[in-house]
Amino acid sequence: MKPLSKNIIVALLVVLALGVIFSTYDMGGKKAPETIGISALVTKIEAGEVKSIDVEENALTITGKDDTEFLANKESAQSLNEILTGYGVTAEQLKAVSIEVKEPSALTSLLRNLLPTLLFVLIFGAVLFFFLRQMQGANSKAMTFGQANVKESTNKKNRVTFAEVAGATEAKEELGEIVEFLKTPKKFADLGAKIPKGVLLMGPPGTGKTLMARAVSGEANVPFFHISGSEFVEMFVGVGASRVRDLFARAKKAAPCIVFIDEIDAVGRQRGSGTGGGHDEREQTLNQILVEMDGFEPNLGVIVMAATNRPDVLDAALLRPGRFDRRVTLDRPDLKEREAILKIHAVSKPLAADVDLKRIAERTPGMAGADLMNIMNEAAILAARADKKETSQKELLDAIEKVMLGPERKSHILGDEERLVTAYHEAGHAVVGHLLPFCDDVHKVSIIARGRAAGYTMSIPDEDRKMHSRNEFYDDLAMTLGGYVAEQEIFGDFTTGASNDLQKATAMARELVTQFGMSELLGPRTYGSDDDRPMFGRAEARDYSEKIAEQIDSEMNRVLADALQKAREIVQKHRSELDKIVNELLTKETIEKEAFETLLGPSIKRPKVTVQPVNV
Ligand code: ADP
Ligand code: MG
Ligand code: ZN
After folding, report:
1. Of 136, 185, 507, 550, whose CB neighbour count within 10 A is largest?
2. Residue 18 has pLDDT above 70, yes or no
3. 264 — alpha (psi -120 to 50), left (phi > 0) or beta?
4. 416-531+541-600, which class in CATH?
């Protein structure tokens, strides 16, 4: 409860109590009569000034000859007569005063007796009420424990449609069918067709799975129940299952509708693997989901959509027919789709005339929709901070780097020596990358610190590629080690600045050997699964012998040594080019692609594949 409303209630109570107290006195609008003592009363009687006395229990109301009123109190034990006689008032004097004894009315005496109790009960009740309210506030979570924390949205304003999801043509086509089901379930029922129960959206993070699910509900114009898989799982076993029941009970009432379980891998992981407290709970929750999905009458009109970026870890039972048997994949967008996504997020953002979203799309291969949205937004923020009225291309390009590498740290001034080392390090990457045929084009070299890096070299593929060849891996490895090599060749020493590069190179070499079968020695097989995230208590899922483990190590070392050698040869042979880049970096801090190619000449990249299939 807010303190303000609490204060108001307290104030009201005080006013009420005061009102009750004062209302028992009859103020009658007149000025309150004076209260006098018994001896003063006696004096007045003896002086013959008193006309009458009304006695009501112990309260005396005295009316004088001149009609003035006084109040007095007597002891309860004695009667007024006794008291006055005791004070020496004579019988004659008393006769002159008319004394009237009033029996108190039943109601007043009742009220008088009950009032303190009543007040007490009232105040006590109020206090109790506060406590209860407060406790409820704190415990409201406990009270709604078994209820699902679903966000239902039927809101017309936030309605998303397919028009707001760029690209993903196939996914939209697939889901269009679901929209039809939801719009006109009867049409399908009449033909005896069963409406699908579950749709699984799969794809890397940020590719618009949640957005797409919303769009389906928006297109069909049905309620949308949104819950995240992790919200099912609490500390206590059974809570998740009860939440599932609650969720589906609500959905059935709202049918036709969509139930969307985001990040379903949180509960839908393969059962019977893994350890730890959450395990039983997950299993029960998952079982309950399966039971609910099986329990739908056909054509009820509740469609369960779920999203995951790890379909590989899902329990097989979730995927069998009758459950999530429709699967829709959302991929990272290609060049055209990236441009379309940028366009969608450029709506309502004023853009300068020089903005070329196609170029931005070209510069962002591998980025998902969420990253692109982020870039548009960061660019608008940069423009606003520069007090511009429109976002221009420059801000967009800056935003890409900001999203990719973290914010620029202009205040992070390097000392002269560190600046020189950083310049040679980045020049090493750039020159090796430029001269090796399978590396991507170098787009920018900079010694302005960004995020955690002291400088950076940005290379971008000239087209979207989904596959990578061994030659590309080998050349990329050499480029990654280019900075390390340059430092060693020039200064005869290393800095910690290369540690990130070494981590990257090691991971790449491991994948090359264990996942892609690119090492002749170890042959075309994989070693270990890529799901061996070592959870606590669980050993890494290793499916090879100790001897192979040694071979993997030595093979990784060989691959890295080869790459190092390749990089070293280039750095040694092209020392003058290296120096050129370093000089430019020291004066300008940043070199863009065009300037870079003027200094080094155009890069000679790998020849296109020209072999034609042989006709037979
Ligand atoms: P996911 O659920 O796959 O992780 P989201 O649906 O949460 O991704 O996407 C995050 C944001 O990225 C969305 O709100 C949307 O603004 C943007 N986005 C992603 N993909 C697209 C797309 N294809 N078209 C337009 N915007 C997109
Ligand atoms: Mg999501
Ligand atoms: Zn580096």
Report:
1. 185
2. no
3. alpha
4. mainly alpha
